[in-house]
Specification:
There is one protein chain. With 330 residues, the chain is of the alpha+beta class. The chain has 2 domains: 230 residues, Aminopeptidase; 81 residues, Elongation Factor Tu (Ef-tu), domain 3, CATH 2.40.30. Helices cover 25% and strands 28% of the residues. It has 8 helices and 17 strands. The strands form 3 sheets. It has an 8-stranded mixed beta sheet, with helices on both faces. The protein has a 6-stranded antiparallel beta sheet with strand order 5-4-9-6-7-8. The chain has a 3-stranded antiparallel beta sheet with strand order 10-11-17. Strand 10 and strand 11 form a beta hairpin. 47% of the residues are buried.
């Protein structure tokens, strides 16, 4: 599983440019499911077919990551940029980014009276050139870049960029591998453009019209010094979502997840997130409504170049979803 995680988190795939990650996922899933296809918005849909009349269950994990996009290039070759998704300027200073063609850049910033005045307009990307013409031989307006970081492991903790949400893509892959038999028709959907408005999940859910939806994503924690209060910690089990800013989990799905975890002896935590959202927010509003919940992987330092998860929480998330899909649904 670690090799898969490494391959996915180190891949290039900002929102709207997920093709490299989509191809990796397609190659992996083709041997695990009955059908794999890519829809018009770039979602990768992997299908485990069920019997006639089987309930349709959609599991969604977004494959895109946050990034930056070039808005201008000055006469000395410095790139001005804007954000793709939830990027904070304060996490960027001195960090490296990688463009689709492999060009590496470093974030710098203009002289400031106070660091609190830092914003994207005061920052630039240095790609090691001396002129606009030289820069445009490597990068153009509208090109996107992502953090340039490799996967590291310290004990049971994994550290990487884009664990949000490639770690959940890994969960869906492992579910497909371990699912021995299910009475349901399973749609494992690796969604596009979640970080900019849950866009891929919205169109995928409309097309599939599932009976139930479960989003798989990371969530924040409250277990670091003076952290924002939240009853979720690394290493204490998968998190079952109650609420975030995009969804209140359907009680049928939430109770199914809780009851299954308790019956199987799988460690879990209840998640109430008072910021952010997941693909569940788009899925549950599809057509006339879809009973939807979410399984979340606790993650420190979300939306930074060094996100952190515990491999045991990942494993417990896989176990819970397999157990749910192998059993009856309400």
């Amino acid at each position: 599983m670690k090799d898969t995680i490494k391959q996915l988190v180190e891949a290039y795939g900002p929102s709207g440019s997920e093709e490299q990650v989509a191809q990796l996922l397609t190659n992996i899933m083709e041997e695990l499911v009955d059908e794999v296809y890519t829809d018009e918005l770039g979602n990768v849909v992997a299908v485990k077919k069920g019997n006639s009349g089987a309930k349709k269950v959609m599991l969604a994990a977004h494959m895109d990551e946050i990034g930056v996009i070039v808005t201008d290039i000055d006469e000395k070759g410095f790139l001005r940029f804007s954000n793709i998704g939830g990027v904070s300027p304060h996490t960027l200073i001195g960090q490296r980014v990688r463009f689709a063609n492999g060009t590496i850049g470093i974030f710098g910033f203009e002289n400031l009276e106070h660091i609190k005045d830092l914003n994207f307009r005061k920052m630039f990307i240095d790609i090691g050139v001396s002129s606009r013409e030289e820069a445009m031989g490597k990068v153009n307006i509208g090109d996107a870049a992502v953090y340039h970081r490799e996967l590291c492991q310290e004990g049971t903790r994994l550290i990487a960029k884009s664990l949000d949400n490639r770690i959940s893509c890994t969960v869906l892959i492992e579910v497909a591998k371990r699912l021995k038999a299910s009475p349901h028709e399973i749609y494992l959907v690796f969604t596009s453009q979640e970080e900019v408005g849950l866009r891929g999940a919205r169109t995928a859910a409309y097309a599939l019209d599932p009976d139930y939806g479960i989003a798989v994503d990371v969530t924040g924690t409250g277990d670091t010094p003076e952290a924002r209060r939240m009853a979720v910690s690394l290493g204490k089990g998968t998190a079952i979502k109650v609420k975030d800013m995009s969804v209140i989990s359907h009680p049928t799905v939430r109770n199914l997840l809780v009851n299954t975890a308790e019956a199987q002896g799988i460690p879990y935590q209840m998640e109430v997130l008072d910021w952010g959202g997941t693909d569940a927010g788009a899925i549950h509003l599809t057509r006339s409504g879809v009973p939807t919940g979410a399984v979340s992987i606790p993650c420190r330092y979300v939306h930074t170049p060094s996100e952190m998860v515990d491999i045991n929480d990942v494993e417990h998330s896989i176990q819970l979803l397999v157990a749910v899909l192998e059993g009856p649904l309400p």
